[in-house]
Design brief:
The protein has 34 helices and no strands. By secondary structure, it is mostly helical. Helix content is about 70%, strand content about 0%.
């Protein structure tokens, strides 16, 4: 099994364009590197067989354990820091950087804990902009890895009396595919994965009666705080709490019909919650993978489509390269009837509940890039693999050999991925592979390349990427043409083009957003609300869609809801003057005059305001009878070349302003 898996990992590295993204850690590396890595793996297993399989006598002292723990913390901290990621094309790294770099960083409710900590570290750094954001991501990423290492060393000393088994367990857990998140990775999931890892370790100690059950609540609560997907820990948490009780003992003796009845009872509230979320949240509705194809299905990607099933298999191998060895260990453990062990059941329940969430939630960027969000699901299987193979109570034949073989495979995979994120050239090549695997999901991916090359000052690469982008996604450039028509005031023509685009690609959120703006301008409020809800459901980070929906809600007489939308738009993009003006209007309707004036002041202080934005400021000041600021805006509009007759019509309703601007508005010869 080891040789077969190693051969697959090596061979898949020569097929970078195939849907084998989780099996190709060394893609785009030179042939000697791939072959050398495979030989290293074989030699590593052989040397380990000679050095580690001899069981040591005695149990390490507490002093030795503490020394090893300190050394482990120092080594991992150095490795995570020295080998930190140099480019951020995996996940949504560059977008996350830009969102955190602003003056009002976006706090995502579904990952509120980690988002708040990133803002805190950024503010604490004393830096500004993107350097501060990058430092924050790196500090928390590395800190998460070090914390996980500390808890891992502490737990392993209580789970395994023999030093060699502790060592394999610690290194094995630290080389699971999720560990890439600890190498200064730019995303909001490092602390979440670390907390899930700590939960699994504490759960093992609770299952072995080495800790009280109450300790489970600390890492479980932290997981939910860092990301809403932490709720997937609840089934395993309930199991460990009930297992030692009388009720739990009785449940172990239940027949199939009783378990089926319990399943139905538990399914009813879960189904109700699912239906409620589906009917009330557009975002939630489009967050799940459709069981059957519909008009919003992207590229035929459904629950049972070949692409999705392949992605799940790839993710499993990415997170646990020794997945085949785990299956072998499970078969042997089942044959010996040792899977009824409480610690094994706990990890199996944890693995199944995590995998269930991964299976049904839609990878918006495509699974090859969204692997980081779903990497938490690897903690359970990795822990289960090393528990079955290293814990002598399972009496697994050749367990230590299987564990070391799995560890070597994990090192082969993780080292290739760490090398990739430290080599921008290879990472970009891999990123382009991912764009070809999920072209519709990654239609905006080339923008990240454009931004990267622009910062590098590589104009040739910028032109090449733009040309390739236009050839691959002509619909995007049709959208840009529709936006140009909209900005030129050709609303009917732009609307017709946008309607064609959403008919052709109903999952194109940006097209829905622009169509919503056009219908809003035409005061078709219900149609505008529908389009903007679609846009936000498909892309919850569309500032323009939130802003325009806030305007629609103002006209619907819903100022409180309008403020919520406009504040969300401002959090996503604090630079948009229109959002500030709309938010000020909503706050004025709610009687929040101080907040409204503060937002108008921020808008007025912004650089490079357009003429129509200054016109809105003028009208605000004029209605507020603030002659001085109103005159300043009119003079600025005239300096921009605006027609004097048009400006005179703006000023006409305000006699005091007509007098103040008499000279500027005088007819010119």
């Amino acid at each position: 099994m080891f040789v077969a898996t190693l051969a697959v990992l090596s061979a898949a590295s020569f097929l970078p364009n195939a849907r084998l993204w989780g099996l190709a850690p060394w893609a785009h590396f030179p042939l000697p590197v791939v072959i050398g890595t495979a030989l290293f793996a074989v030699v590593g297993v052989w040397m380990s067989a000679r050095a580690w399989f001899r069981e040591p006598a005695g149990i390490p002292s507490r002093r030795t354990t503490a020394t090893v723990t300190l050394i482990s913390l120092a080594v991992t901290a150095v490795l995570f820091t020295v080998l930190r990621t140099k480019a951020h094309f995996l996940g949504d790294g560059y977008t996350a950087l830009s969102l955190l770099a602003g003056n009002r960083p976006l706090i995502k409710s579904r990952e509120i804990g980690e988002s708040l900590l990133h803002v805190w570290v950024k503010n604490l750094s004393g830096l500004e902009g993107e350097p501060a954001a990058l430092l924050s991501f790196r500090v928390l990423s590395i800190a998460a890895g070090v914390i996980f290492t500390g808890v891992l060393c502490w737990a392993s000393a209580r789970l395994f009396p023999k030093f060699n088994r502790r060592l394999v367990f610690v290194v094995g857990m630290l080389t699971g595919g999720y560990a890439l998140l600890f190498f200064g990775y730019v995303e909001n999931y490092s602390l979440f994965v670390a907390s899930v890892g700590c939960y699994a370790l504490v759960g093992l100690l609770v299952a072995r009666n080495r800790l009280a059950r109450g300790w489970l609540l600390i890492p479980a609560s932290a997981s939910v705080f860092f990301h809403v997907l932490g709720v997937t820990l609840i089934p395993s948490l309930v199991y460990l709490i009930l297992a030692p009780t009388r009720a739990g003992q009785r449940m172990r003796r239940w027949n199939t019909s009783k378990w089926a009845a319990l399943g139905i009872i538990m399914a009813i509230p879960a189904l109700w919650a699912l239906v409620y979320a589906w009917s009330t949240s557009t975002f939630f509705r489009y967050s799940l993978i459709a069981p059957l194809p519909d008009k919003f299905t992207v590229g035929g990607y459904t629950l049972l489509s070949g692409a999705h099933l392949l992605d799940i298999a790839n993710l499993l191998v990415l997170l646990l390269p020794g997945a085949g060895l785990l299956i072998l260990a499970l078969i042997r453990a089942a044959a010996s009837r040792s899977l009824s062990n409480r610690s094994a059941i706990f990890l199996i329940v944890l693995s199944i509940s995590s995998a269930g969430a991964v299976f049904v939630f839609d990878p918006k960027l495509g699974m090859p890039r969204d692997w980081d969000l779903f990497s938490f699901a690897g903690v359970g299987p990795v822990a289960l693999f090393y528990l079955l193979t290293l814990d002598e109570s399972f009496k697994l034949r050749s367990g230590m050999r299987i564990a070391v073989a799995g560890l070597v495979l994990a090192l082969v995979s993780l080292s290739g991925r760490v090398a990739m994120v430290n080599n921008p050239k290879i990472l970009i090549a891999r990123f382009k592979d991912y764009l070809t695997l999920d072209p519709l999901r990654d239609r905006n991916g080339p923008y990240l390349l454009l931004t990267y090359y622009e910062k590098q000052g590589d104009s040739t690469a910028v032109q090449q990427v733009r040309a390739e982008w236009q050839a691959a996604f002509p619909i995007k450039f049709r959208l840009e043409r529709a936006m140009e028509l909209k900005d030129a005031g050709k609303i009917t023509e732009a609307g017709s083009m946008l309607e064609e685009i959403v008919r052709e690609d109903p999952a194109y959120g940006n097209a829905w957003s622009n169509l919503g703006e056009i219908t809003m301008r035409a005061q078709n409020w219900d149609s505008a609300m529908y389009c903007l809800n679609m846009a936000i459901g498909l892309n919850p980070f569309d500032a323009a869609a939130y802003s325009n929906r806030g305007v629609v809600r103002l006209y619907h007489g819903q100022p409180v809801e309008a403020v919520d939308d406009l504040e969300q738009a401002l959090a996503i993009d604090p630079t948009k003057p229109a959002v500030l003006f709309n938010l000020a209007s909503a706050n004025r309707k709610l009687g929040r005059i101080k907040e409204a004036e503060e937002q108008i002041a921020l808008m007025a202080a912004g650089p490079d305001l357009a003429a129509y934005e200054r016109t809105r400021l003028f009208q605000w000041y004029a209605e507020s009878r603030r002659t001085g600021p109103a005159v300043e805006q009119i003079r600025a509009i005239l300096d921009m070349g605006m027609d004097t007759a048009y400006v005179a019509r703006l000023v006409q309703p305000y006699p005091a302003l007509r007098t103040a601007l008499q000279k500027e508005l005088a007819p010119r010869p």
